[in-house]
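Open question from group meeting: does this chain pack into something compact, or does most of it stay loose? Before anyone orders reagents, we agreed to write out a predicted structure and look at it together. Recording both the input and the output here so the notebook holds the full record.
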Amino acid sequence: MTQPIQVQYENKVFKPLTRVRGIREHQTAWMVLCAPKSTRALRTTAGTLNAREAQAMQAVIDKEFEHIEGEW
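Structure tokens returned:
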């Protein structure tokens, strides 16, 4: 049985934030951890756009895509 659940790490213990089905109290089970995704690394590598820059970029993209002919 595979069941994704959200947990919170608190006082060195993982606490489920949703109901866990199919596991009895004190039963041993396996858990796979996935840390929350971080966008900080991407922002430092690629940077971010302010609203004016994003609008200017969107205008360029829209203009370029007007010229595409045929199917992709």
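Observations to bring back to the group:
Residues 37-72 form one domain.
The first strand starts at residue 7 and ends at 10.
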